[in-house]
From TrEMBL:
The lineage of its organism: Bacteria, Bacillati, Bacillota, Bacilli, Bacillales. InterPro entries: DNA-bd_dom_put_sf (IPR009061), MerR-type_HTH_dom (IPR000551), MerR_fam (IPR047057). The keyword DNA-binding applies. This is HTH merR-type domain-containing protein. It comes from Bacillus cereus MC67. One of its GO terms (molecular function) is DNA binding. Keywords: DNA-binding.
Length: 48
């Protein structure tokens, strides 16, 4: 799993856009840590 920053670099999608995509349910993280709020993405999501 990748944190949002790492996923952003690999996908060439800005962190701001990833947060927006999550909000509009276009590309949602696989997991969101309940305590920290960190978003985690899977490598398989890079192909979408």
């Amino acid at each position: 799993m990748f944190k949002i920053g790492d996923f952003s670099k690999l996908s060439s999608i800005s962190i701001r856009m990833l947060r927006h995509y999550d909000k509009v349910e276009l590309l949602q993280p696989e997991k969101v840590d309940e305590q920290s709020g960190y978003r985690y993405y899977l490598a398989a999501q890079l192909k979408k």
